[in-house]
Amino acid sequence: MFARLLAIGLAALAPVPHPYRIERAEPVPILMYHVIAAPLPGAPYPGLYVTRREFDAQVRWLARQGYHAVTLGRVLDDWRGLRGLPRKPIVLSFDDGYRSDYTTALPALESLHWPGVLNLEVNDTKPVWGLRPGLVDAFVDAGWELDAHTITHPDLTQVPPARLWTEVDGSRRIIRREFGVRADFFCYPAGRYDAAVIADVIRAGYLGATTTRYGLARPSEGLYTLDRVRVSGGEGVSGLAAALRSLR
Question: Which phi and psi (to 5°) does residue 138 adopt?
């Protein structure tokens, strides 16, 4: 049993062969945000909260530095040699689907004519603090990319095979049915994945997947294990600037 688990773990670390030809390999930063609001009292993970003021300052700084926000689909098109990217491309991704994505992130990016990437946990369209279906439509109308982040946000490495498939494939099917978009990319909940999870992501037809691993996204390290840059509350503009400088 231990040997099997070790083999799965080692396989998950190896780059997965690309299903298509990669022409370019320019790395791109993918920022990872969660809640764009002040932390609630007693919040278990206060670092996941970036205040509105902090977020607005970071977005304005990125624009002043010449960055241009793009989607993951646009990045993949560039890597495949289908169309180029603007100078200093960057992806702004938002995990789970919080109402603050609609009230704060969407208008901030719209003011710059920038798209974002919404990694939607399907069940987050139900709670009052999440994004109701009508609000999700607003992101699609604004040119955002809508990607799958499972249905219920479990640790995919710990669920039975049938549920793993439902969470991976089912979330994409629901997003396609409810919102009429392709949902071509997957985001691993809490960054948890192994070889079995990656295999189902590929089988479901996703073109790539993002992790919580820190770094720039590079196709040479596998399209199904793309690195991101977590943006935590309190870092401010200086923290974001330092992170991007160190990665470059």
Answer: -65, -35
Let me know: does 37 contact 244? Beta carbons within 8 Å.
no
User: Is residue 224 a contact partner of residue 211, using CB atoms and an 8 Å limit?
Assistant: no
Alpha helices in 1-148 (DSSP H): 2-13, 52-64, 72-79, 99-100, 106-110, 133-141
| Cα–Cα distance measured from residue 221 to residue 205, given in angstroms and rounded to the nearest whole number | 19
CA atoms of 125 and 123, how far apart (whole Å) = 5
Give residue-wise pLDDT tens across range 148-201: 999 999 999 999 999 999 999 999 999 999 999 999 999 999 999 999 999 999
* Residues 110-141: tens digit of each pLDDT: 999 999 999 999 998 887 777 888 899 999 99
Helix (H) or strand (E) holding 247: helix 236-247
- Measured distance CA(180)–CA(117) in Å, rounded: 16
Contacts of 179 (CB under 8 A, 6+ apart): 133, 136, 137, 140, 146
Return d(Cα 180, Cα 177) in angstroms, integer.
6
* 105 neighbors 35 (Cβ within 8 angstroms): no
Res. 18 pLDDT band, cuts 50 70 90: low
φ, ψ (nearest 5 deg) of residue 244: -70, -35
- DSSP summary character for residue 42: T
Start-end of H helices in 70-219: 72-79, 99-100, 106-110, 133-141, 161-165, 171-179, 195-203
Give the helix, strand, coil percentages of the chain, each rounded to 5: 45, 15, 40
Q: Using alpha carbons, select from 55, 162, 67, 60 the residue that is nearest to residue 105.
A: 55
